[in-house]
Write a structure and sequence with these properties.
22% of the residues lie in helices and 32% in strands. It has five helices and 13 strands. The strands form two sheets. The protein has an eight-stranded antiparallel sheet with strand order 3-4-5-6-13-12-9-8. β10 and β11 (196-204) form a beta hairpin. The longest helix is centred in the first third of the chain and has 14 residues, at 40-53. The relative contact order is 0.14. This is DUF4367 domain-containing protein.
């Protein structure tokens, strides 16, 4: 419970509640009080209060109670796992390589390039709907060792992570919530029907996850937390 309470205290700094104005102050006061045994049962109730005053895209922090974070269309399981990918994973559904301008025409969101990285070496699109509109656009760098995945944040889960704490951390990108996973973890794809596609599972590198203008992003590669945030903030 100590780790959960620390996370909630950190979260309180981001609370936004225009109506009523005194709720944020009350929550912060409660989070700042020393932990007592009798308060353990009250933590779950306090999480409900936090969710009520946090914007919808942030309300997923409530799942931290059960060891699961859902953020920006990504599910992060924070319970230990021994599951490791076996052979080389299959591509995402119907994945294909396209030119950048074709990728832009193939998805419903703007394909933005990180100024810190420059033009991508390769662009992929994946998981089309019946109209031929693709769900995921991927920019590859360094022979594929560094990648930026973009997908419509209004859709259901697009990726599923199995990570072990304490390597999952809340950070900020352009002043808003992001999630940093600072160690290798298992990554698999969740398709349009909500099914986890285990055949796509692979061991992923450190990853930054954030959302901007209803588009969710994953930046994965051998980057430090500071470097990853700089790349994320350079999207144009």
């Amino acid at each position: 419970m100590g780790d959960l309470e620390r996370e909630l205290r950190d979260l309180s700094a981001w609370l936004e509640t225009p109506d009523p104005p005194d709720v944020t102050a009350r929550v912060r006061v409660r989070l700042s009080r020393p932990a007592r045994p009798w308060r353990r049962l009250a933590v779950a109730a306090l999480v409900a209060v936090v969710v009520a005053v946090v914007p919808p895209t942030r309300a997923a922090v409530a799942d931290a109670v059960t060891g699961l974070l859902r953020f920006a269309g990504v599910s992060i399981a924070t319970t230990p796992t021994r599951t490791l990918p076996g052979d080389t994973p299959s591509p995402l559904p119907s994945q294909r390589s396209v030119a950048l301008d074709e990728a832009q025409r193939s998805v419903r969101f703007p394909v933005r390039l990180p100024a810190k990285l420059g033009p991508p070496e390769q662009v992929l699109v994946a998981d089309p709907d019946p109209t031929g509109t693709y769900r995921v656009a991927t920019l590859l760098y360094g022979g594929g060792a560094l990648r930026v995945d973009a997908f419509d944040g209004r859709l259901n889960l697009a990726f599923h992570k199995k990570a072990t704490p304490p390597g999952v951390e809340w950070v900020q990108v352009n002043g808003d919530f992001a999630v940093w996973v600072d160690h290798p973890h298992v990554l698999s794809y969740v398709d349009r029907a909500g099914q986890v596609r285990e055949e796509t599972a692979r061991l992923a590198a450190s990853t930054l996850i954030w959302e901007d203008d209803d588009v969710s992003y994953r930046l994965e590669g051998a980057l430090s937390k500071v470097e990853a945030i700089e790349v994320a903030q350079s999207l144009r």
